[in-house]
Amino acid sequence: MRTCVEVDFKVYTGFVDQKGGITMQDTLVVYFSASGTTKRAAETLAKLLGADIAPLQPVEAYSQQYDQIVARGEQEKDQDSRPALEPLSVNLKQYRTIYVGFPTWWSQPPQVIDTFFETVHLADKLIVPFTTSMTSTINDSWATLQQLATTAQASLQPGLTANSTAAIREFIQ
Length: 173
Ligand SMILES: Cc1cc2nc3c(=O)[nH]c(=O)nc-3n(C[C@H](O)[C@H](O)[C@H](O)COP(=O)(O)O)c2cc1C
Fold this sequence. Notes:
Layout: E1 2-7, E2 10-16, E3 22-24, E4 27-31, H1 37-49, E5 52-55, H2 66-78, E6 97-103, H3 111-119, E7 126-132, H4 142-151, E8 155-156, E9 160-161, H5 165-172
Parallel strand pairs: 4-5, 4-6, 6-7, 7-8, 7-9
Antiparallel strand pairs: 1-2, 2-3
Helix pairs in contact: 1-5
The protein binds flavin mononucleotide.
GO molecular function: electron transfer activity; FMN binding; oxidoreductase activity, acting on NAD(P)H
Domain Flavodoxin-like: 27-173
Protein name: Flavodoxin-like domain-containing protein
């Protein structure tokens, strides 16, 4: 049974175990989504895992127009920029495993994923990456993710291409 508990004036989510004790939820799903597909995949994943979920929100929100997303994404890629992110809505301390989701852009994670790895304290966390895409797979982004995780002193775990509920179910089984 999912529940909440207050510790040091902070509310954490968790589960009531069979003995009635509180087990803290230690898995979080974070995601960036420009047009909603990765958000839906993240929600499915979080639901199936019983995990908490938090969006990665750029300070300057992306347009909902496809052409404008492409134009901005291309400029950010060419400039190797680090678009600023709003502070996360959760405290990462409680979590050991963090699923990190993003749309594949030009066979790579969008630049906001670089921002996430470089500005959030991820040392010793287990990072499970997932992506949505037209055809690309999580393998295309692997070298970049490995570099980002190494610099962040996080441990990159096998990830998934989350283009269907079936693929998500299969991964977490
Ligand atoms: C700027 C841009 C670049 C893209 N590059 C790729 C790509 O290299 N490979 C691919 O399979 N899909 C690519 N796509 C498709 C997206 O990865 C796919 O539609 C994704 O599910 C969108 O997720 P979102 O709705 O969460 O933003 C690209 C889309 C955009 C807007």
